[in-house]
């Protein structure tokens, strides 16, 4: 049995499709999204579904237009043999298809911008995005039933767009996690906070319930027969209760969150190698560079040991519990990220670890004036970082070119002295760097 | 003297040509316009009412051309039009809706308000004068449409399917209205109702595919019916004969 | 005239327009940080970019689809519709004038001036849309313009592109001239409805 026939040529989704798909492609290729993907699917999925800020309003507006067409055709005044769900589905199926196509396009374009992407897109985030999309389409349909198309389409288009883009500008910060799944997710060292995926989906379910109830109580909504007198009102009350419950549950899930929906990425994800004593671990999306990273890190660790820095047990990409026994390093898929960058990231993190590590000589050498102490501490930390990077294997030329001449001058001088003088300078500078007033 | 079309061509946007260089004049008196669906009847009446403008050619009535801006006002004063679709204005009563039509045709507020009640009375809707127009049935709404045409005095009255959806009693009332109009105005009525043509109308015009297939008196029209046509179906027989036995209604 | 006012739902239009004035003069200077695809990475889009859509939409919603008998009217109903649009813009200008002249403190002239200019622009586009696309789709044009400007309208340094008139500074003469021109075209197109159309 044919449930219904689609007539996509006449559907609003058809003229809207090229425009929406172009905007989605422009958006996901912009620096706003494509700037920091680096092969991590969870982050890439979150960035791709952030295109909902355009997809949801456009599809909701198409749904409002389709509802307007049913209104104008007075389908509700007829005696349809199909029920309201089927009639709405016939109008909204192309709109939903457009929404899913736009989401798939966003994911595909994001994938094209990654060097390699082990694993798969995050299904939880995609599922939440689909729920949100369906809710917005239902909302557009309901508004289109209540208002004439001349008002419904612009109201839905602008209102839905602001609903999606405005919460990040509002306090409290967790408000943004009610409208967009996995907002602000993620750097490689973070995983998505599951509550921030569930919460917007729950709020969307509440919205959808309100939309269905609003459409049901509208006398223009086409349906088979009329509902018994009190049913629409009981349905509306139920929808309000459902929306309250789902929104409250959503708020409870995210009300402790900051601007980004993230939590620490499990260390079990790491891929490790054990060359010459120091264990080196990277995230799976950087596994192709593990050998190169392990070689560069081991060389750097050995060179630093010679100037008095104790080698760590592990050098890892995970930012959890860094310390003198566990150094951190940053790796990127981008081929332009060289072993020189690896050494720089390693020593930059190491400098912070060394400065913050417990020490016994107190603050006896620090200037009394806090401002002077802070300035000297900053300068010392910068100098230390540059010196460590050169000692770990970075070329002097590159270090000089990328460093403020004021910072480079003492480092350049000390690099020309004996190993013993350099070790003394290292210890003295480390003491100065620890003078940061607390 | 009646409305006259000279080499008129009309085509809807992205649609087919409805009228192609039509030259024709409605005879004076009461004329019924017959034709199959899509023949161009509504377009012809809308052109005559100055709701539409021909792509080429002219329409004129009493020496007035609605395409000439200086003559449009006087043309519209003399021509009344009942469109095919009567839209109830939201929140308006029947009397207000009819009075609004009179005001649109240049009547003062007072004249229109008084005239509206009289016009509603002529179509048998005086009792519904203060009822919301949107609450009326399809047939009643059509009678409001007729009243809108009667509220101001025109020298040419054009009505597009005024009897569609009317019960036999109301069709009788409508016949009376047309008879009353005959003394003061030329009347052109587009319809699919062919019974009692001879009692109401003087002339018959048959339009098909934008071409006038027949124009003449009712008697001349009836004469086209085959000899063996049953007495109650003479008009149908004549109509079928005019269209060459092809598409009828 | 009262019947015409009744058919044009003037009460609703007045309510929406008054609400727009209240919102424009209290929230007009608020800004929304929105993502940008037109050169800037994000821009603080003023609320007044969107607010004038409300009366422009309400105006077209209140016009509704004209009843067929208006197409053969002696009275210039379409000209009245044009006048109604002029009245909404003129009333907004009159309300904004004291702020624009600096007579009222506490309200930013930027919001007042942008409100008048953007209302003229959106109303003009809505009227052009009504003539070109019909009443149902008429308001899509100004709405799309507002959204396109909010997404693509800002270049580096967060300055509006030359074509992004609703986001332009009130001192930009091109945005005023363009808005006035589009309003004039819209009014002319609307008023032409009094004459037979093809």
UniProtKB/TrEMBL annotation, chain B:
<dbReference type="GO" id="GO:0016887">
    <property type="term" value="F:ATP hydrolysis activity"/>
</dbReference>
<dbReference type="InterPro" id="IPR027417">
    <property type="entry name" value="P-loop_NTPase"/>
</dbReference>
<keyword id="KW-0813">Transport</keyword>
<keyword id="KW-0067">ATP-binding</keyword>
<keyword id="KW-0547">Nucleotide-binding</keyword>
<dbReference type="InterPro" id="IPR017871">
    <property type="entry name" value="ABC_transporter-like_CS"/>
</dbReference>
<dbReference type="GO" id="GO:0005524">
    <property type="term" value="F:ATP binding"/>
</dbReference>
<dbReference type="InterPro" id="IPR051782">
    <property type="entry name" value="ABC_Transporter_VariousFunc"/>
</dbReference>
<feature type="domain" description="ABC transporter">
    <location>
        <begin position="3"/>
        <end position="234"/>
    </location>
</feature>
<protein>
    <submittedName>
        <fullName>ABC transporter</fullName>
    </submittedName>
</protein>
<dbReference type="Pfam" id="PF00005">
    <property type="entry name" value="ABC_tran"/>
</dbReference>
<dbReference type="InterPro" id="IPR003439">
    <property type="entry name" value="ABC_transporter-like_ATP-bd"/>
</dbReference>
<dbReference type="InterPro" id="IPR003593">
    <property type="entry name" value="AAA+_ATPase"/>
</dbReference>
């Amino acid at each position: 049995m044919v449930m219904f026939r689609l007539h996509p040529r006449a559907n609003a989704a058809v003229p809207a499709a090229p425009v929406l798909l172009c905007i989605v492609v422009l958006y996901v290729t912009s620096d706003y999204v494509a700037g920091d993907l680096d092969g991590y699917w969870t982050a890439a999925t979150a960035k791709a579904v952030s295109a909902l800020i355009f997809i949801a309003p456009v599809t909701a507006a198409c749904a409002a237009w389709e509802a307007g067409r049913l209104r104008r055709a007075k389908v509700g005044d007829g005696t349809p043999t199909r029920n309201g769900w089927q009639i709405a589905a016939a109008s909204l199926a192309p709109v939903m298809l457009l929404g899913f196509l736009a989401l798939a396009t966003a994911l595909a374009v994001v994938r094209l911008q990654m060097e390699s992407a082990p694993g798969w897109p995050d299904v939880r985030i995609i599922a939440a995005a689909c729920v949100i999309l369906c809710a917005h389409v239902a909302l557009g349909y309901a508004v289109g039933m209540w208002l004439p198309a001349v008002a419904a389409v612009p109201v839905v288009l602008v209102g839905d767009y602001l609903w999606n883009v405005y919460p990040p500008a509002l306090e409290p910060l967790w408000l943004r996690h009610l409208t967009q799944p996995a907002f602000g997710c993620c750097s490689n060292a973070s995983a998505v906070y599951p509550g921030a995926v569930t919460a917007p989906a729950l709020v969307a379910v509440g919205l959808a319930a309100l939309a269905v109830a609003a459409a049901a109580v509208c006398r223009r909504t086409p349906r088979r027969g009329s509902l018994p007198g009190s049913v629409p009102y009981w349905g509306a009350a139920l929808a309000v209760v459902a929306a309250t419950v789902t929104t409250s549950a959503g708020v409870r899930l995210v009300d402790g969150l900051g601007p980004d929906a993230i939590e620490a990425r499990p260390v079990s994800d790491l891929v490790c190698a054990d060359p010459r004593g120091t264990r080196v671990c990277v995230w799976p999306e950087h596994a192709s560079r593990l050998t190169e990273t392990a070689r560069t890190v081991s060389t750097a660790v050995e060179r630093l040991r010679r100037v008095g820095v104790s080698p760590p047990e592990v050098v890892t990409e995970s930012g959890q519990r860094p310390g003198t026994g566990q150094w951190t390093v940053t790796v990127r898929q981008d081929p332009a990220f060289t072993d020189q960058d690896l050494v720089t990231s390693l020593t930059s993190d190491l400098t912070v670890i060394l400065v913050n590590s417990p020490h016994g000589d107190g603050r006896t050498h620090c200037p009394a004036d806090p401002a002077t102490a802070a300035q000297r501490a900053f300068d010392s930390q910068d100098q230390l970082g540059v010196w460590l990077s050169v000692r770990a294997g970075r070329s002097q030329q590159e270090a000089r070119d990328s460093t403020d001449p004021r910072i480079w001058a003492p480092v350049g001088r000390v690099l020309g002295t004996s190993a013993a003088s350099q070790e003394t300078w290292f210890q003295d500078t480390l003491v100065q760097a620890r003078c940061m007033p607390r | 003297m009646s409305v006259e079309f000279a080499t008129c061509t009309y085509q809807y946007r992205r649609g087919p040509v409805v009228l192609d260089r039509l030259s024709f004049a409605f005879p004076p008196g009461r004329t019924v316009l017959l034709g199959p669906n899509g023949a161009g009847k509504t377009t012809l009446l809308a052109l005559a009412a100055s709701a539409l403008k021909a792509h080429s050619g002219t329409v004129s009535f009493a020496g007035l051309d609605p395409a000439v801006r200086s003559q449009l006002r006087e043309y519209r004063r003399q021509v009344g039009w009942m469109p095919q679709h009567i839209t109830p204005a939201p929140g308006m009563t029947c009397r207000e809706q009819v009075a609004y039509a009179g005001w649109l045709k240049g009547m003062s507020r007072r004249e229109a308000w008084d005239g509206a009640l009289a016009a509603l009375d002529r179509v048998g809707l005086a009792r519904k004068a203060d009822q919301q127009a949107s609450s009326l049935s399809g047939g009643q709404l059509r009678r409001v449409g007729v009243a809108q045409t009667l509220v101001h005095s025109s020298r040419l009255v054009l009505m597009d399917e005024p009897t569609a959806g009317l019960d036999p009693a109301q069709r009788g009332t409508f016949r009376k209205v047309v008879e009353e109009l005959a003394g003061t105005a030329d009347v052109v009525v587009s319809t699919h109702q062919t019974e009692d043509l001879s009692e109401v109308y003087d002339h018959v015009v048959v339009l098909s595919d934008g071409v006038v297939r027949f124009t003449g008196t009712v008697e001349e029209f009836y004469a086209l019916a085959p000899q063996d046509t049953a007495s109650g179906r003479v008009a149908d027989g004549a109509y079928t004969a005019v269209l060459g036995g092809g598409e009828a209604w | 005239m009262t019947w015409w006012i009744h058919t044009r739902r003037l009460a609703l239009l007045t309510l929406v327009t008054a609400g727009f004035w209240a919102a424009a003069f209290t929230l007009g200077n608020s800004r929304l940080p929105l993502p940008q695809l037109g050169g800037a990475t994000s821009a603080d889009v003023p609320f007044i970019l969107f607010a004038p859509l409300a009366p422009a939409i309400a105006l077209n919603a209140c016009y509704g689809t004209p009843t067929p008998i208006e197409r053969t009217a002696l009275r210039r109903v379409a000209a009245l519709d044009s006048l109604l649009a002029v009245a909404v813009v003129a009333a907004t200008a009159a309300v904004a004038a004291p702020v624009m002249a600096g007579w009222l403190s506490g309200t930013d002239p930027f919001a007042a001036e942008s409100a008048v200019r953007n209302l003229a622009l959106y109303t003009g586009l809505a009227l052009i849309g009504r003539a070109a696309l019909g009443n149902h789709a008429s308001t899509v044009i100004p709405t799309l313009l507002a959204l396109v400007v909010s997404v693509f309208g800002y270049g580096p340094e967060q300055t509006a592109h030359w074509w992004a008139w609703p986001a332009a500074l009130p001192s930009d003469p091109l945005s005023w001239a363009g808005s006035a021109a589009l309003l004039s075209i819209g009014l002319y197109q609307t008023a032409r409805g009094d004459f037979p159309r093809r």
